[in-house]
Amino acid sequence: MINSLSGRFLILTTVFVMLAEVLIFVPSVARFREDYLLARLERAQIASLALLADDMIAPELEAELLDNAGVYNVALRRDSSKQLVLSSPMPSEVYASFDLRDAPALTLIRDAMVRLVDPQDRVIRVMGNPLRDAGLLIEVTMNTGPLRAAMIDYGLRILVLSAVISIITALLLFLAVRVLLVKPIKGVVGAMQAYAEAPEDARRVIVPKASVRELREAEEALQSLQTQVTQSLKQRERLAQLGGAVARVSHDLRNILTSAQLFTDRIEMSEDPLVRRMAPKLVNSITRAVSLCEGTLAFGKAEEPSPTLTLFNLSSLVNEVFEAERLAIGDDPVSLSADVPAGLVIRADPEQLYRALANLLRNARQAIVAAKREGEISVQARVENGDWVIDVVDTGPGLPPKARDHLFQPFQGGARKGGIGLGLAIVAELVRGHGGSLTLRHSDDTGTAFEIRLPMGASA
Fold first, then answer.
1. Buried b (16+ CB within 10 A) or exposed e, 21-54
2. Measured between alpha carbons, how far is 392 from 423 in angstroms, rounded to an integer?
3. Does position 120 have pLDDT exceeding 70, yes or no?
4. Reduced to 3 states, what is the DSSP secondary structure of residue 109?
5. Residue 191 domain flag
6. Could you tell me the maximum CA-CA distance found in the chain, to the nearest angstrom?
7. Same domain, yes or no, for 261 and 382?
8. What is the per-residue pLDDT for 311?
9. Does residue 181 form part of some domain?
C-alpha cells in the first residue's frame, strides 16, 4: 500500500491538507480570541446600561451583572471623563492591557498564541469601542483562565474537523487517482507484459485508449516501438530463413566449383597459347566464387572463429595480398601501392587480417573497374595513440548512397551492382574480433578511405 503510487498519494494528500489546516488554525484561534473578548465587552456594556438606567441598584444585582458579563470591573467613557460603572474586588493586579481598537492582525495572532501557551490564570484589562456609538471607550478587567479554556476547546474542534476533512479529501483523491491514473497505467503495464510473451504476434501490439493526454502519448509511443520490434523480428526471421537457404545453395555450389577447379588445373597444361593465357583468369574467377561461397557459409553460421594472435611482419602480409590481387586485376587499369614500414611487426591473426585486407582491396578494385576508369589502391600503416592503424585508400567513384546508409550490414545492398553486401560486414566482424574498429573515413567522387584500427594493448 505504502509503496504503491495511490498509497503514497493518499499519505501526501493527508499531510498537505493537515498542513493547510494548521496554517488556517492560527488565524482562526486569534479571531476566536478577539470575538471572545468583544463578547465580554458587549455583555459589560449591557450591564452598565442597566446601572445607568437606575443609579441605585442593590449590590447583589451588581455582582450578578458582573458575573453574567464574566468581568470584574466595567469602565465607560461617554465624554472626556472615564466613569467606573460596575466594580468588584479583583483577585490580583492587572497583568497586561489589550486594546482591541484597530489592532493589527499580526498583533492579534501574537497575543492569541501567547495566551494559548500560557497556562497561568491572570487578570487582564481589555479596551474597545462601545456598540452603537454608546460612548468613546469601554474597558473591562477579566480572568484569562476561561478565555484559554475556550480557545483550547475551539482549537481541538478545529483540529478534529480538519482531520476529518483531510481524510475524506484524501480518500476521494485516492479513488480518483486509482481510476484516472493507476488503472490506465496498470493497463499499459499489462499490455507490455502480454506483448513480451509473444512479441512476434502483431495482435498483441497495444491499442491507445487512454483519455488522459500524457498517458495516450505514452501508449502511442509504446505502440510505435512494439510495431517496429515486431517488424524487426519478422524481418530477422525471414533473413534467417533466407540465410539457411543461401547456406545450403552455397554448400552445393562450393562443391561444384571445387570440381571445376580440378578441371582448370588440367586446362593450364594445354599447348594452346590462348588457352594457357585464359586459364589463370578462369582459375581466379572460380577461386573468387569458392571464396564467396565459403564467406556466405561462415557468415550464415555465425561461427567466425576467435583470432589466433601471433606476431608477424605487416609489410610481408600486404605483399601477399597484393600478389593475389594482381592476378585478379589482369589487364584492368588499376594500380596497387603500399606505404608500410618494412620493420612494422603487429600482433593479430594473419589469416583473418589477410581476409579483411583482401575484401577491402577487392571491393575497391571492383568499384574502379565498374566505373571504367583508371584508379589506384594504396595500403598505408602507422602507429598512432597506442594503436596499429591500417588505411586502405582508393581513387574510385566512392560508395553509392545505399551502401553508405547500410554500411557493415549484411544483405542490405552491396557497393556494386550484383553485390550482396557481405564483404564489409565480414571485414567489420573480423576487426571487431581483434578488439579493433573499422571506420569509413570518407567516400566521394575522389575515392574512398577505410581505416582499420587495432589496439596494441600489452603487445606494445
1. beeebeebbbebbbebbeebbebbbebbeebeee
2. 14
3. yes
4. helix
5. no
6. 163
7. no
8. 94
9. no
CA dihedral (86, 91, 92, 98) in degrees, to 10, reads -50
Same domain (yes/no): 52, 153: yes
Report whether pLDDT(306) > 70: yes
Report the number of distinct structural domains present in the chain: 3
Residue linked to cell 545450403: 248
Which residue type does 61 have?
A: L
Can you give the CATH number for the domain in which 389 is found?
Answer: 3.30.565.10
Which residue in the block uniquely carries the three cell numbers 497556562?
119
Q: Which of 328, 322, 334 is nearest to 282 (CA)?
A: 328
Q: Pinpoint the alpha helices (H) of 178-312.
A: 183-197, 213-267, 273-301
Q: Which helix (H) or strand (E) holds 450?
A: strand 447-455
φ, ψ for residue 178, nearest 5 deg: -65, -40
CB 135 within 8 A of CB 76: yes
Do residues 421 and 246 lie in contact, with contact meaning Cβ atoms separated by under 8 Å? Answer: no
DSSP 22: H
Q: What is the pLDDT of residue 226?
A: 87
Task: For helices 314-329 and 350-370, give the axis angle rounded to 10 degrees.
Answer: 40
Does 372 lie in the same domain as 361?
yes
The pLDDT assigned to 420 comes to: 44
Output the pTM of the full model.
0.42
Cell numbers standing for residue 295: 564467406
User: If 0-12 CB within 10 Å is exposed, 13-18 middle and 19+ buried, where does residue 284 land?
Assistant: middle
Positions of E strands within 87-236: 94-99, 123-128, 137-143
Q: Quick one: DSSP state of residue 210?
A: -
pLDDT of residue 64: 76
> What whole-number distance in Å separates Cα of residue 204 and Cα of residue 70?
79
Q: How far apart are CA 433 and CA 444, in angstroms?
A: 29
Q: Are residues 109 and 11 in the same domain?
A: yes
Q: What is the mean pLDDT of the chain?
A: 80
User: Within 10 A of 242 (CB to CB), how many other CB atoms are there?
Assistant: 12
Collapse the DSSP code of 157 into the 3-class scheme (helix H, G, I; strand E, B; otherwise coil) and give the result. Answer: helix
User: Are 393 and 378 a contacting pair, CB within 8 Å?
Assistant: yes
Q: Check: CB of residue 138 under 8 Å from CB of residue 76.
A: yes
Q: Does one domain contain both 228 and 127?
A: no
Q: Which of 17-21, 54-58, 383-387 has the lowest mean pLDDT?
A: 54-58
Given 169, 187, 209, the domain boundary residue is 169
- Angle among Cα 332, 336, 340 to the nearest 5 degrees reads 170
Please identify, among 169, 187, 221, the residue that sits at the C-terminal boundary of a domain: 169
CA distance 68 to 170: 44
CA distance 149 to 157: 12
Range of the domain at 391: 306-459
460 band by pLDDT with thresholds 50, 70 and 90: very low
Spatial separation of the C-alpha atoms in residues 14 and 304, rounded to whole Å: 64
